[in-house]
Amino acid sequence: MTDQFSSVHATSPGWFLENLKAAAEQCELQVSDWPELAGVSFRGGEASASTRLSPSDLPAVKYGIKIGRYSVVVGVLPEEPNAPAIRETLRRYRNQCVIARSFLSANQALDLQLMLVGPRGSERLSEWQALALMVERDDRVARKLAWLMPEEEANDGASFGDFLKRTFLARPWSFEGRFSAAALDRLSSASETSISPLPRNVAEEWEQIALGPEEDPMKIVDALINAWKRRLSE
Predict the structure, then answer these.
(1) 0.85 exceeded by pTM
(2) What does DSSP assign to residue 154?
(3) More confident residue, 7 or 220
């Protein structure tokens, strides 16, 4: 994946959205806007006031998009690293994701993502880092990811690239390097000389232990270790 991103000024979340879509297209994923995910009404209830949430229960800034099989709601974090404000922001975006889920099938709901953009300069502030962790550990309704923007606009591309590595758009298997035949030969030779094979009887015992009725994880670990110790003493 290229590190070249849009030169458009990094506003929240315009720059983020533009480059998120570009990164998805680079991964050959179909991208389309899905405004209903960011709406105020549940699916099928557009004509009824009882199926809408009030503005005080929803975020003011939100965008809905579809990337491949993933449904994504994009929003922004508060300007100040204030825990109560972050919790209120999360509450509103969780409500938004509940609306979004009404437009998704059960399988699609499993891939719902909420991506929130932090304010300029939040990347290196310890207060923001702690709050971003709080945001991402909240696994209710949707998976959540926070991008904390760097202080300097010149670093936006690199910072955004690091963010993408934590998302479903990461492509760690895409790289320039290639193995040479000589390198593969050295790897094979090393494995033959330095790695002792696992005896069949030990492998079978491990399998019996792992698939046995014992439910205590520590007892299972002890049993696996003892099986290996018996092999070394033989």
Answers:
(1) no
(2) G
(3) 220
